[in-house]
Amino acid sequence: MEHLKLAQEIILYCGGKDNITQAWNCITRLRFHLKDREKADVKAIQALNGVLGAQFQGDQFQVIIGNEVLKVFEGVKKELGDLIVTSEEKTKKDKKRENPINALFGVISGIFNPILPAITGAGIIKGILALLIFLKVLNPESDNYFVLDMISNATYYFLPFLVAFSAGKKFGVNEHLSATLAGIIMYPAFVNLSGQGISTVKFLFLSIPVMDYNSTVIPIILGVLLLSIVYKFIDRFVPSFLKMIVTPVASLLITAPVVLVFIAPLGSYVGKYVAAFFIALFGVAGPVAGLLMGGLMSVIVITGMHYAFFPSTFDGLGGVGYDILLLPMSIVSNMGQCGAVLGAAFKIKDKKMKSIAFSSALSALFGITEPAIYGVNLKYKKPFYAALTGGAVGGAIYGIFHVKAYAFSIPGITALPTYLKEGELNNFIWACIGVAASFLTAFIITMLLPLEGKTEGKEKEADKISQDHEGQMVKIPVAAPMTGKAVGLDQVPDKMFAEGILGKGIAIIPDEGIVKAPFQGQVKMIAPTKHAIGLISDRGVNVVIHIGIDTVNLQGEGFEVLVKEDQWVEKGEPLMKVDLDFIRENHLNPITPIIVTNSDEYVNVLDIPMDMAQAGTSEVLIAFQ
Hints:
Blueprint: H1 2-13, E1 20-25, E2 29-34, H2 42-46, E3 53-57, E4 60-64, H3 69-80, H4 87-94, H5 100-112, H6 116-134, H7 143-157, H8 159-171, H9 175-185, H10 188-192, E5 200-203, E6 206-209, H11 218-235, H12 243-303, H13 310-319, H14 326-347, H15 351-365, H16 370-380, H17 382-400, H18 425-448, H19 454-468, E7 475-479, E8 484-487, H20 495-498, E9 504-510, E10 514-516, E11 521-526, E12 532-537, E13 542-546, E14 559-561, E15 568-569, E16 574-578, H21 580-585, E17 592-596, E18 604-607, E19 610-613, E20 619-624
Helix pairs in contact: 1-3, 5-8, 6-7, 8-9, 8-11, 9-11, 9-12, 11-12, 12-13, 12-14, 12-17, 14-15, 14-16, 14-17, 14-18, 15-16, 16-17, 17-18
C-alpha cells in the first residue's frame, strides 16, 4: 500500500493523470512524458518519502526512486493503465532483428511456461494414480479411479486449447479467438468421423483430412501463428467501427480452412515423425544417446535449448503415450546436480555458502536446479563437472534400458511415479536405478575432488583479511567494469549520479565496449533495455553498472547481454558487449557510472580515479567495512 500511495502522490504532483501522456520505468527511475511541464511540482515530488530526486531531462520528467522503482511502478500502472509503455513493448518496436534460433526458443518458452503448472499438476496426479494402482490401493475399474483419471487426462486431451490461448498471447492476437481455432480442429463431430472410417471431408473444392488432434501442440501453434498474421493484416484495412465484427469473422473464415486442410495435418505429421525419430535413435544407439543427452542436459537447459524439445515431448506423450528424451534425461541430469551440490555442501567452509548449498540440494531433489547450478556448482566449477558426469551415467542407463516417462512432471524425485505403468515394472525399477546412479556418481566425485579452487581460495583469503583486521576496517575492493578513464561521479552529466543520490561510486569514460564483472558474485538484475546491470558480490557489495546516460532510450539496441539473472560470475568475466560508436552516433554520452547502492551499509566507499583503468583488474572503488 505504501508503494501505491507514493505512486498516487507522484501522479498528483505531475499534474494529474490528464497531464501524463506516457509513463515507463528504467533501472532506478520512473519516466514520464507530460503535456504541460509547468504543472509538475518538482519540489513537492522531491520532498516525498521514498523519492530520491526529480528532474527534467530533455522531454522526459524523471522521478528517481532507486531500488524500489519496480514496486512503485506497479502502483503507477494501476493508476495510469493504458498510458503505460513497458520497456518490453518499446524494445519490441525498436530492437534489432534477433538471432532466429534464439527467437524460436523464446517463442516456445513463452508459449509453454504459462501452462506448465497445469501440465505438471496433471502429470503428478497421473503418477500418483499409477502408484496407487501398483500398490493395489485403487481399483482401475472403480468410480474413484474414473474421476481421478478424468482430472489428470483433461489437461493433456485439451492441450491444444491451453497452447492456443498461450500462443495467442505470445503472437499478439486475441487469446479467445485463438482458443476458438483450437475448438475448430477438435470439434467432437469432426474427430468422431475417424472412428466411422471417414478419411476426408469436402469443403468447397478442398479436401480436409480427418484427424484427431487431441494432445497435439505443433498444429495449433502453427495455426495461431497464421491467425495472428491474417488478423493483423485484415485489421489494418477495416474501419474502426467495423473492427469488432469484420476482423474476427474474416480472420476465422480465412484461417480455419487453411489450418484444417494444410497446416494442422502437416504439424501433426511433423510432431509424429520427430517423436518417432528420437524413439528410433534410442533404439539404435541408446547407451551413447543417453550418455550424451544425460550429460549435456544441464548445459542445454542453461542455454534455453531444452524448449526446442517441448513440442515433440507433448506430441510423444499424446501419440505413443510416453517420452524417451526430454523428461528422462532431465531427471537424471537434475539428480546429478543434486548429488553434486550436496557433496559441495559438506566441503564448503564458508557458513553462508554452506547453507545455500544445503538448501539448493533440497530444491534440486524436487527438480528445481537453478539455485544449485548458478548458486553453487558453476561457482565452484568442479561440482558442475561432477554433475554432468552423474547425468551421463544415469542417461546411459536410461538409454540401455529404454526408460520411458508416461506423463509430464517436474523432473525431480516426485516424478518417479510417472515412470510406472501396469505391466511394465522394469521401467520404474530402472528409472530409480538411473536416478540413484546419477546422484551417487556426482556426490562421490564431488567429495573426492579438491574443492580448493579459485573461488574457495578467495573465500579463505577474505576470511583471513577479516581476521587480520579484527577491530579495524576491512577493505572490500571493486574493480573497473570497463576499460577507460576512471573519474569522479561529479563529472557525470546527470545530477542524480553526480550528487550521489543513488549511492557512492565512480564513473568510467570507456575506451572499449566490453563490460566485465567487477568482482566475484551474482547477477541480480538486468534491465529489460539492457543498458544497466546489477550485481552483488560474494561479500555483500551491491553494485549497479549504468552504461551511458539516457541510453534507456535506445531500447536495447547496441547492447548484447552475455549472462543471465541469478548467474554467478567470476571477477573479470564478460557481462555484456556495448557498441560505443552506436551510442555516440545517437548523440548520447557513454560515460558509465558504477554505483554502490548499499553505500550506507559501509563506513565509507572510496573512489580511486585513474587515467587508464583496466576492466576486471584495476581497483577503482574500495568499500570500508
